[in-house]
Recover the amino acids of this structure.
């Protein structure tokens, strides 16, 4: 086995290195219909070209008034106003209120000129077709959303890199955006390696295991908004691996290798990367548990990551290294990620100083307090990941956590 | 306006009523390729037909041994074993260990007969091609995942109704599931109403507003795993609304109406529902703020929901009423929903007893404690929803919350 010597780099060192290498990358954009932009990432700032609403708008059913004309009104001494008509929905009214005049208005209707507020219908009585009793005063601006109060013209409603949620679709619609410029999802090649690994649609022979990583990793790729391209299983053969990775590099933005756990396969991975282009391997091995045997490389501007063979380790390294790469390629903010909650750990857990440890945990609500209960067991077991609600971190500067200590848990 | 009198029903009353009406509904299923099952809902329990792993598997690179032969071994007094060969990856070995024999094995390799543990390569020295020094004892089972230790044959790995996450794809692959039976996404018709409402691709005239709700609501439909079918904007006309809702009922599983806020439009909605079929309107008005003017109906077995016209109110009622309907139609557990966290409220907020209040909040980390800061402002403003991180609830039995009190916040 060719010996590769590197200074041990921490996860944040590696992230900085990758950021540096990817800083000049040109993100691909595309324009989609508003409704198809859900979950996508904005490619440009969105600035409102209009005031929203574009007019003073009633928020209740009632009567548009000049507030001053209602001051002091009570049940027993109502203000008497002259009812001059009704505001039609969706139209600009030609009505202009004179002192002590009023017009009927529905929720969403446009206030007539001079009106500054709306009295709710509940606080009025219609005496005859032209006389309205107002039994409660309103303040100027009451029951009205004024022009531009929701969104002012020129407001940056969203910055580029923002991931679009349901309410954002509504906000984009409100300012007339029926097409949205978003970042195209990066293509991520997923390759599994190893002579012992077979596809899930094949019967297992003794000594064989099914290809878990292609599927778990593709799921993570999808979850974070990129597009997986699966290459299936490459046997334990240098030439086959070389041509598969070469092909993957041509057709995608990132190449992920994983699966094979034999010494031979791991050796091939490093050699293939070194021979495909420069600068090649940036780091080999990460001070992380689980996930030590990781290879981080850049080949002709594209990240190539050799993930550990153990499915749990591969998934942890994906979140630590690949998810930030996807964020860069989608133009997302650096800290974009899963939701983190604080919880108390239910038992002592030891860790080596200088190593980040990630522990699969259940979350339990105990008398209103959140507790993280470690799921013990060997790190290669996929059933552990299925049972877990999230992953707690023991930072590298600590040698463990004590029962009852607060830990940060990233939720699945 | 036709007067509709109902006893005031709470949100949970309405949910129970809907559950009762939908209890015999037949869920549509479909079979998809494993990788396409990400985010989908399982239509059946998944039971493993095999032990995983199917054989005793090494978790390290090293030498397979009979643990007893290493007992007492140290650096200075190593156990000397006879090295008889190497286990090939992915193959059943014909080797059967005799006492004091060992074979080389890689991570993932299949243990030979009689071997019960693996010594890591770091704790061995190869003296010559047939002699191995073991410098540290191993316990039986050490560095081995035994047959069925990850997933036992006959284990219910997932129950139907489970939503598939990345690690679940891995687990399904591990037991050989390359096709997955999932629930077909329910079709949800989304109709906007009102003469003042125009499509986002049209210029606004004075008095008009753009159709926000079609987009915000379609986003929510997508977020929760259903499929929106948009019907655009229906003007303030009974006949047009009647035929649009009739068409929507024929082509979809749920019909959502919203948008028009004039008295006339709201009146039409109730009449249309009453005339389309039985049992018709189940509840009219909900003791919820924002969101009071809601119409809940079942027409020939299908839910028809009239959402409030205000976008924020419509979104809140969607989460309270429509999301549980989607869960039923996807066969999800009843409590499936957004993530909730506990936070302290940053100011006093009043509420009416008997009414559930929902407050849009920012979340802030203050000295390691999570605080919910209410976003004040009129409930019709979409910009409020854009700024919010989640929604805090003041339950109906309370008349408010005091600064520093714990509230539950559902995150967006």
């Amino acid at each position: 086995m060719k010996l590769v010597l590197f200074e041990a780099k921490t996860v944040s060192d590696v992230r900085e290195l990758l950021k540096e290498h990817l800083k000049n990358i040109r993100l691909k954009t595309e324009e989609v219909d508003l409704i198809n932009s859900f979950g996508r990432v904005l490619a440009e700032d969105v600035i409102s070209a209009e005031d929203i609403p574009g007019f003073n708008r009633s928020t209740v059913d009632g009567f548009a008034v000049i507030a001053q004309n209602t001051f002091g009104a009570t049940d027993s001494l109502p203000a008497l106003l002259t009812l001059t008509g009704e505001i039609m929905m969706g139209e600009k009214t030609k009505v202009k209120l004179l002192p002590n005049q009023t017009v009927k208005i529905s929720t969403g209707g446009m206030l007539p000129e001079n009106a500054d507020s709306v009295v709710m219908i509940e606080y009025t009585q219609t005496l005859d077709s032209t006389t309205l009793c107002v039994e409660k005063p309103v303040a100027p601006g009451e029951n009205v959303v004024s022009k531009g109060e929701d969104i002012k013209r020129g407001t940056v409603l969203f910055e580029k890199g923002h991931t679009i949620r349901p309410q954002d679709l509504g906000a984009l619609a409100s300012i007339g955006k029926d097409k949205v410029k978003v970042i195209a999802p990066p293509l991520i090649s997923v390759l599994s390696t190893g002579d012992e690994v077979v596809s899930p649609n094949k019967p297992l022979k003794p000594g064989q295991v099914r290809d878990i990583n292609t599927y778990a990793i593709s799921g993570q790729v999808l979850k974070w908004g990129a597009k997986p391209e699966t290459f299936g299983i490459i046997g334990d053969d240098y030439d086959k691996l070389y041509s598969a990775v070469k092909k993957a590099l041509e057709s995608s933005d990132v190449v992920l290798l994983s699966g094979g756990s034999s010494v031979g396969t791991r050796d091939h991975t490093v050699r293939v990367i070194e021979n495909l282009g420069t600068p090649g391997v940036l780091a080999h091995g990460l001070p992380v548990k689980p996930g030590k045997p990781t290879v981080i490389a850049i080949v002709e501007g594209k990240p190539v990551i050799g993930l550990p063979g153990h499915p749990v380790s591969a998934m942890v390294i994906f979140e630590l290294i690949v998810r930030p790469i996807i964020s860069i390629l989608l133009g997302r903010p650096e800290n974009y990620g899963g939701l983190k909650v604080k919880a108390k750990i239910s038992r002592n857990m030891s860790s080596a100083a200088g190593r980040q440890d990630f522990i699969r945990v259940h979350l339990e609500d105990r008398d209103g307090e959140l507790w993280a209960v470690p799921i013990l067991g060997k790190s290669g077991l996929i059933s552990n990941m299925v049972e877990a609600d999230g992953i707690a971190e023991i930072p590298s500067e600590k040698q463990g956590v004590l029962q009852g200590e607060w830990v940060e848990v990233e939720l699945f």
User: Anything to note?
Assistant: Confidence is low (pLDDT under 50) at residues 1-6 of chain A. Chain A has seven helices and 28 strands. The longest strand of chain A covers residues 356-366.
